[in-house]
Design brief:
- By secondary structure, the chain is α/β, with parallel strands linked by helices.
- It folds into two domains: 8-108; 111-347, Glycerol-3-phosphate (1)-acyltransferase, CATH 3.40.1130.
- Helix content is 54%, strand content 12%.
- The protein contains 14 helices and seven strands.
- It has helices at residues 5-8, 11-24, 26-38, 45-73, 83-108, 120-123, 141-153, 173-181, 198-207, 226-238, 242-250, 259-268, 288-294, 317-341; strands at 111-114, 133-137, 160-166, 185-187, 213-217, 273-280, 300-308.
- Strands 1-7-6-2-5-3-4 form a seven-stranded mixed β-sheet, sandwiched between helices.
- Helix 8 (173-181) links the parallel strand 3 and strand 4 (185-187).
- The longest helix has 29 residues, at 45-73.
- The chain is globular and about 60 Å long.
- The model is unreliable at 124-129 and 343-347 (pLDDT under 50).
Length: 347
């Protein structure tokens, strides 16, 4: 169970202390990491991870300091819901993500490639799009998720994302503070009995989507693993959805999409265009153990977007579910094809 907010706020001072200790111990940590890198696979693995850890701590501390200043500017918390306050929060988040991604790309020699002619749906050729969007993405770990949100918010697109994400991510102090001040929805891992489902909250997020807003949903609900796929297929079979079972079993890289949240979002925002997102390259990094074993990367990350105007989105529940599965099959095929031809890791 997630600790209450008052308890979670204790992590802020702990992060400051960790950063101070890390900086003071740099004369010891850097030589130790350099020596450890000699005995580890990859090029300077321990040094790279040390650099990422210190950068992440610095970004967290900077974000929390900025959050305090924004709280003061927001009338000591009384005007945090105003458009001006929300704009300031989005700006700080964009700067933090941009800094973190720049350092990560340089440390791990990452290169982002957007495949196909799929860039224009996000910006219509100019910074700041003029169409509300529902973005439906595969779920492939925090690395790909950070990359996607950064792309939505960068200077070329300037989107204001509204995100449906797991409540456990509130353990990150910056995400906890900023995303709870902005229109987002955290899905509880263990909701109490009788609690309303997330569909109502998703509909509320979608209902007033503006021209620069993008509601980001991960219809799979979790990262793909063979065990999760077996469980997902069994749930479909238990409900008697045999056609969905056959389609889910044929997918090689994805879990079957859950249409309830997508249906709620598109029903509440019929004016919104839809963008489907496929990405591959960081899906194997889901845990701290994965991070240790999988980095450094020195590789190319691939991203692909498909744009569907609002007028072409089906509205009936059965038609919408079939449409969502067809797009998920397209994404699955793209991941398979891209994984087969992408360059090998240079470790």
């Amino acid at each position: 169970m997630l600790p209450p907010r008052r308890v979670r706020r204790v992590t802020g001072p702990l992060l400051v202390a960790a950063l101070v200790v890390g900086v003071l111990l740099l004369p010891v940590l850097v030589p130790a990491a350099a020596v450890a890198s000699v005995f580890l696979p990859g090029r300077w693995r321990a040094l790279r991870l040390l650099g990422l850890a210190l950068t992440y701590l610095a970004m967290e501390v900077a974000g929390l300091v900025a959050a305090g200043l924004l709280w003061v500017l927001g009338g000591f918390g009384r005007r945090l819901d105003t458009p001006a306050s929300r704009a300031r929060h989005y700006t700080v988040l964009r700067l933090l993500l941009d800094g973190l991604m720049r350092v990560a790309r340089r440390l791990f020699s990452l290169r982002l490639v957007t495949d196909g002619e799929s860039w224009s749906p996000l910006d219509d050729g100019v910074p700041g799009s003029t169409n509300a969007m529902v973005v439906l993405s595969r779920h492939a770990g925090p690395g790909d998720s950070f990359l996607l949100v950064h792309t939505l918010m960068d200077r070329d697109h300037l989107r204001r994302p509204r995100i449906v994400l797991k409540d456990v991510l509130q353990l990150d102090p910056v995400l906890d503070v900023y995303l709870n001040r902005l229109p987002n929805h955290f899905v509880a891992s263990d909701p109490p009995a009788g609690a309303p489902g997330p569909e109502a909250a998703i509909a509320d997020l979608a209902r007033d989507l503006g021209e620069e807003d993008a509601l980001l949903i991960f219809p799979e609900g979790a990262n793909f693993t063979p065990r999760r796929k077996v469980r997902a297929v069994e749930r479909l079979r238990t409900r008697g959805l045999l056609a969905a079972v056959r389609r889910a079993e044929a997918m090689r890289n994805l879990l079957p999409p859950r249409p309830a949240g997508v249906t709620a979002a598109l029903g509440a925002a019929p004016h919104a265009d839809v963008v489907f997102v496929a990405h591959t390259g960081l899906e194997h990094l889901s845990t701290v153990r994965d991070l240790w074993r999988g980095l450094p990367l020195d590789k190319t990350l691939h991203l692909r977007w498909w744009f569907v105007p609002a007028a072409e989105v089906p509205r009936g529940e059965a038609e919408l579910t079939d449409w969502l599965y067809r797009w998920w099959e397209t994404i699955d095929d793209w991941i398979t094809a891209t994984s087969a031809v992408r360059e090998p890791d240079l470790r």
